[in-house]
Amino acid sequence: MKKILITRKLLRSSEDKASKIFDTKFNTNDELYSQEKLIKMSEGCDAILSALTDKLDAETINKLPKSIKILSNFAVGFGNIDLDAARKRNIVVTNTPEVLTDATAEIGILLILGACRRAPEGIEAAKASNWKWSADYLIGKQLTGTRLGILGMGRIGRKIASIAKSLGMIIHYHNRSKLSVDKEDGATYHKDLKSFLSVSDVLSVCCPATKETTDLINKETLEYLPPGAVVTNVARGDIVNDEALIEALNRRKIYAVGLDVYKGEPNLNPGYLKHKSAFILPHLGSASKHTRTAMADLAIDNIDEFFKMGSCKNKVN
Ligand code: GLV
After folding, report:
1. I need a surface site. Which of 118, 135, 139, 245 has the fewest CB within 10 A?
2. Whose Cα sits closest to atom 1 in ligand 1?
């Protein structure tokens, strides 16, 4: 039986499944392992089922025991793992694509709605019972006819586009390459980032965090957006420069933001706190029982497939 380290607590049913297939080492207190602790805990293991909270940088990967053959990340994103360092050590890295598309797109739409329709202000006022209906009270931005710019038209981006279309939004996208007409589904492609941002009344960041996308939304690129644009991010905090976004909110270049992710999670840049127009969630993208179960199943199956077949279809490095 292969021995695996599961770095974070999973749902009970997922841990039960893992222990039927593997000799499992669980993190019963769900503590956040330091890099040293993670290395120590992985001693004697053949695989690590990691989470997005584990920073598997080159230094950590280089110190992992030789017995580790696969890092199965319990996430679709894998920006927490240095893929090159893993490849150099012949360690396979896998992710959990597809199964979290719908749940993450739901949160992507929630961010757009919450930011555009002033949900944070509304919630605060309703809870404090200090509001009065009037024709101009908490007027927000309606989505009908509004242009939505999807940055990264992968599975999640396309799902957000399809829901947003049904709400009457007009879809534009920027991607490394133009999609087939079928996948585009009426959306307009912009090869050029500036041209794309200049038509994004609402921006939805959906692309992976890579060296190329780090800080892609910054002081300069925020200026390309139309005045009063809304910025939402359901992907990774690293893609958005928080200081620049807060500064753009301060001078009302940006009307509102909707963020499920941000740099340095869980520590939110305090600059957002003074903005009632900041609709911010604690990385809930895939947080439903259905999706978290499917993700764990897939992360477990990836390890099983790798040891049985010598490879795995969800390999990313
Ligand atoms: C969640 O953020 C994921 O990448 O799975």
Report:
1. 135
2. 75
